[in-house]
């Protein structure tokens, strides 16, 4: 009799567990969007969110059979507030998935908390090398790039163009440092020399003294990493200082992405490297651009693509586990196997969960970053320090 009761109790417990799992899968999936809504990167945060929501809406508001509920936090691109913000999303709001962010310093804090708590994290922009390097984890994915990738590709391009002595300039923070490092690795490997590395604190935009220094150094060319409002001001100041016509300016693509309207003719002709361009003219990209313009009355940029692809990656993982977000290993395996059908061109993810993707050389023409060529085919980040 006792055995029979134990058996019945076990069966009831198993049924309850199954029922609660089914209930959880039927419940809304909470996605915590931790993106900048204010400050120099505000427009970038909006584009990422728009892209993410567009993909979810295309799937009828559901991923892996689960309706999506968004919880939003303005991260203000402030690393000092990042740990508190991400902990609030996980502990107070009980989000199932984290999506963020733009600023590399903030993303590093998000990655640390995600790694410690096992929460799924999709990074739709910040290229901090460490996210898919020393901080890599089975539950952390990036839908964008590593800072090293566009920098390395541009190092190859500038060396092929015959430039020998180059000055670099950026904000003094993870993204800028790592972009310059990637550039330098490829440029010096090809025989070039970085004669001066200039920087200023983020998000300072007082460029005058540094522009004077560039003029005095007389390099063959300048490589730069700036984004958002800083990129607008740098391009305008560089042209106003009379440097553009004598010392060619090159950059990672963020210099001219989402910024061309404000930069106006000062950006015309600039060459940049990135994993997206405005004139790819593929059926996949054309349909994405049309859908985005229809939904938001805006043209999409690389940030919108990265948001869209973060949602795609999450969707691939959730579909494989029928919406059961607790099955982290199966989610990771599904994304690792996938070929993501991105507007930028299909890509896969590396073992460290960073996109293995083509990096394009683009040239500014009017309000577009037009495709010139593929600067680097299926470029994989070296993921130095990743143990997974």
Number of domains: 2
Shape: globular
Q: SSE string, helix = H, strand = E?
A: HEHEEHEHEEHEHEHEHEHEHHHEEE
CATH architecture of the largest domain: 3-Layer(aba) Sandwich
Mean pLDDT: 94
* Annotation field: number of helices: 12
Give the oligomeric state of the chains in this entry, treating copies of one chain as homo and distinct chains as hetero: single chain
Helical residues, percent? 40-55%
User: What Rg is obtained from the alpha carbons, in whole angstroms?
Assistant: 22 Å
**How large is the share of residues in beta strands?**
15-25%
CATH superfamily of the largest domain: Response regulator
Low-confidence regions: 11-23
Q: What's the β-strand tally?
A: 14
Main β sheet profile: 8 strands, mixed
What is the fold named in CATH at topology level of the largest domain? Answer: Rossmann fold
Q: What is the CA-CA span between the terminal residues?
A: 50 Å
CATH class descriptor of the largest domain: Alpha Beta
């Amino acid at each position: 009799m006792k055995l029979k009761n134990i058996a019945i109790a076990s069966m009831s417990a198993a049924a309850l567990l199954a029922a609660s799992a089914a209930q959880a899968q039927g419940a809304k999936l909470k996605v915590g969007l931790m993106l900048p809504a204010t400050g120099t990167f505000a427009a970038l945060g909006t584009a990422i969110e728009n892209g993410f929501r567009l993909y979810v809406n295309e799937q009828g508001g559901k991923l892996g059979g689960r309706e999506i509920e968004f919880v939003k936090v303005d991260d203000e691109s402030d690393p000092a507030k990042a740990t508190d913000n991400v902990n609030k999303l996980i502990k107070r709001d009980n989000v199932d998935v984290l999506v963020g962010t733009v600023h590399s310093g903030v993303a590093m804090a998000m990655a640390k908390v995600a790694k410690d708590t096992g929460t799924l994290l999709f990074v739709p922009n910040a290229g901090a090398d460490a996210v898919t390097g020393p901080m890599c984890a089975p539950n952390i994915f990036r839908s964008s790039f590593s800072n090293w990738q566009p920098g390395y590709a541009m190092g190859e391009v500038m060396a092929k163009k015959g430039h020998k002595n180059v000055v670099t300039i950026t904000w003094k923070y993870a993204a800028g440092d790592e972009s310059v490092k990637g550039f330098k690795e490829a440029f010096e490997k090809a025989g070039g020399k970085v004669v001066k590395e200039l920087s200023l604190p983020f998000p300072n935009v007082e460029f005058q003294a540094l522009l004077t220094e560039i003029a005095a150094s007389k390099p063959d060319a300048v490589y730069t990493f700036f984004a958002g409002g800083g990129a607008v001001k740098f391009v305008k100041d560089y042209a106003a200082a009379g440097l553009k016509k004598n010392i060619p300016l090159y950059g990672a693509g963020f210099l001219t992405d989402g910024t061309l309207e404000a930069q106006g003719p000062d950006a015309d002709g600039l060459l940049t490297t990135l994993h997206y361009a405005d004139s790819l003219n593929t059926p996949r990209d054309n349909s994405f651009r049309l859908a985005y313009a229809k939904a938001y009355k805006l043209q999409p940029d690389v940030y919108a693509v990265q948001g869209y692809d973060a949602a795609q990656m999450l969707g691939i993982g959730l579909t494989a586990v029928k919406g059961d977000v607790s099955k982290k290993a199966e989610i990771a395996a599904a994304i690792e196997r996938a070929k993501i059908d991105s507007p930028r061109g299909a890509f896969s993810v590396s073992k460290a969960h960073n996109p293995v993707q083509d990096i394009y050389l683009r040239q500014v023409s009017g309000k577009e970053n037009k495709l010139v060529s593929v600067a680097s085919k299926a470029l994989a980040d070296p993921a130095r320090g990743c143990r997974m």
